[in-house]
Amino acid sequence: MSGKSQIGVTGLAVMGANLARNIVSRGVPVAVHNRTFARTQEFMAEHGGEGAFTASESVAEFVAALERPRRIIVMVKAGAPVDAVIEELTPLLDAGDIVIDAGNSHFSDTRRRSAAAREHGLRYIGTGVSGGEEGALLGPSIMPGGQREAYAEVQEVFETIAAQVDGEPCCAYIGPDGAGHFVKMVHNGIEYADMQLIAEAYDLMRHGIGLDVPRIASIFGEWNSGDLESFLIEITATVLAKQDEATGGPLIDAIVDQAEQKGTGRWTSQDALELGVPLTGITEAVFARSLSALRDQRATASRTLAGPKPGARPLPESLVEDIRKALYASKVVAYAQGFEQMAAAARTYEWQLEMGTLARIWRGGCIIRARFLNRITEAYAEQPELVNLLLAPYFRDAVAEAQDAWRTVIARAVEAGIAVPAFSSSLAYYDGYRRERGPASLIQGQRDFFGAHTYRRVDKPGSYHTRWAQDGRELRTDA
Fold first, then answer.
1. Radius of gyration of the chain (CA)
2. Which of the residues are catalytic?
3. 281 vs 47, 193, 201, 333, 336, CA distance in Å?
4. What is the rounded CA–CA span in Å between residue 383 and residue 376?
5. Angle (CA) 124 361 265, round 5°
6. CB of 74 within 8 A of CB of 101?
7. Cis peptide leading into residue 316 (ω within 30°)
8. What does residue 46 show for φ and ψ, rounded to 5 degrees?
9. Taking burial as the number of CB atoms within 10 A of a residue's CB, which of 22, 39, 282, 377 is the most buried?
10. Helix, strand, coil shares of the chain as percentages rounded to 5?
11. Nearest to 97 by CA among 60, 134, 72, 65
12. pTM
């Protein structure tokens, strides 16, 4: 042994600090560094006794504390801060050293940084890490992307610190350059949809049916023992059960109804537009957060705009079971769309993404961990080339069984004036996807009328244009 640390972590905010503690708890010596040395000192005072940490005041001292090839985990805010850290590190590193960005970087930045690292002889791993501060400490889901041989040199550490499910680590090599961060981005997008769907289910029970918060907390607790079992359902029950010490009522009633966002959900939707993937559920969840931010406008609109007042005519309590089924069916759609997006990215960027593996490593550690993911893993094991989760027998049948309830919930929500954008858009996607022929022929006809964009016919090959405003003749344009 060289006496030096086997791996380094720079950036000691909560995620970086907990990841360093996780690694050192496995007997791996860790060098730690932070832009402000005071934070490093605080970290050492609080956690220095947990294992073989080496504190570094300067970047040069940090790099010198590492055995070669150096393996450095960067845990700083996405964007310019990552570039700044890399710029400072690069002159101090040698060919073959490995830089690991484990933050929430945009995958396009990771692709750029990966290419730049190669020019300097360095190796780069863009790694998605999910699980929040608890996951970082106790075992997250890890999604590394970059050069496979570089990953091989950190694989043992990553698989050891990752969450474990059925004896398997929730970590797997994803693909080259930005693949790991792309998959993490889609994970976060699915998380947005999942949270919005749960919020809509709560809203319907609270302001549609009129159930009190403790009763709704109990319902979510019951749901967590069935097919909806998941981390998000579990914490929903906990959040709703929490009493506010100041008022004595449910804490949820004291929380301002504005859902903030860090941008990963928005990135997911923007990328889906570029790839041409109909990511309706996730995008509506992003829009719902944006609408929640318009709190002052909503307050004015509530006194000005006409429409049914939620709760004025309570919905029957029997609707609770229908809401559960609608939540499950909508959740299937959110995942189907997310996996469709990842498949589209794999084709575009020439990544060999293994969909079953992605579902497997999300079963533990991450925010969207759920029993549901076992079903997805099984679906791709049975059909590796599955084009859409809705076509897998289990999900096809589950949605078929739930769809009457799904439609009832949305219809009753509309009548009650309760917005359910994620439920509604998910059903609209499902109905659109199962239509052999939709109304887009009219749109293409309109495009040809005003822009001569041409159209194809169902009865013969080729492209055509109709001289709509002239003599009405149809012309073949590719002859």
1. 25
2. 184, 191
3. 42, 6, 15, 7, 10
4. 10
5. 75
6. yes
7. no
8. -85, -35
9. 282
10. 55, 10, 35
11. 72
12. 0.94
Helix (H, G, I), strand (E, B) or coil at 138: helix
110 closest CA partner among 164, 163, 180, 175: 180
Burial label, 88 (beta-carbon count in 10 A; 0-12, 13-18, 19+) = middle
Listed in sequence order, the residues at least 6 apart from 119 whose beta carbon sits closer than 8 Å to its beta carbon are none
Beta bridge partners of 4: none
How far is residue 31's CA from residue 416's CA, in Å, rounded to a whole number? 58
Of 422, 473, 448, give the one whose Cα is nearest residue 190. Answer: 422
Q: How far is CA 106 from CA 5, 103, 151, 178, 188, in A?
A: 29, 9, 19, 8, 12
State the burial class of residue 235 (Cβ atoms within 10 Å of its Cβ: 0-12, 13-18, 19+): middle
Tens of pLDDT along the chain (479 residues) come to 457 999 999 999 999 999 999 999 999 999 999 999 999 999 999 999 999 999 999 999 999 999 999 999 999 999 999 999 999 999 999 999 999 999 999 999 999 999 999 999 999 999 999 999 999 999 999 999 999 999 999 999 999 999 999 999 999 999 999 999 999 999 999 999 999 999 999 999 999 999 999 999 999 999 999 999 999 999 999 999 999 999 999 999 999 998 988 888 999 999 999 999 999 999 999 999 999 999 999 999 999 999 999 988 999 999 999 999 999 999 999 999 999 999 999 999 999 999 999 999 999 999 999 988 999 999 999 999 999 999 999 999 999 999 999 999 999 999 999 999 999 999 999 999 999 999 999 999 999 999 999 999 999 999 999 999 999 999 999 97
Q: Which residue has the tokens 């579902």?
A: 359
Of 202, 140, 146, 207, the closest CA to residue 170 belongs to 140
The two structure tokens encoding residue 116: 């730049």
Q: How far is the first Cα of the chain from the last one, in angstroms, to the nearest whole number?
A: 73
Query: How far is residue 337's CA from residue 284's CA, in Å, rounded to a whole number?
Result: 13
Please name the helix (run of DSSP H) or strand (run of DSSP E) that holds residue 428, with its range, or none.
Answer: helix 421-433
Q: Which amino acid is at 48?
A: G
DSSP label at residue 57: S
Strand order of the β-sheet with 30-33 is: 53-55, 30-33, 7-10, 71-74, 98-101, 123-130, 141-146
Instruction: Calculate the alpha carbon distances from 405 to 169, 323, 325, 337, 420 in Å.
Output: 37, 7, 6, 21, 14
3 state DSSP class of 94? coil
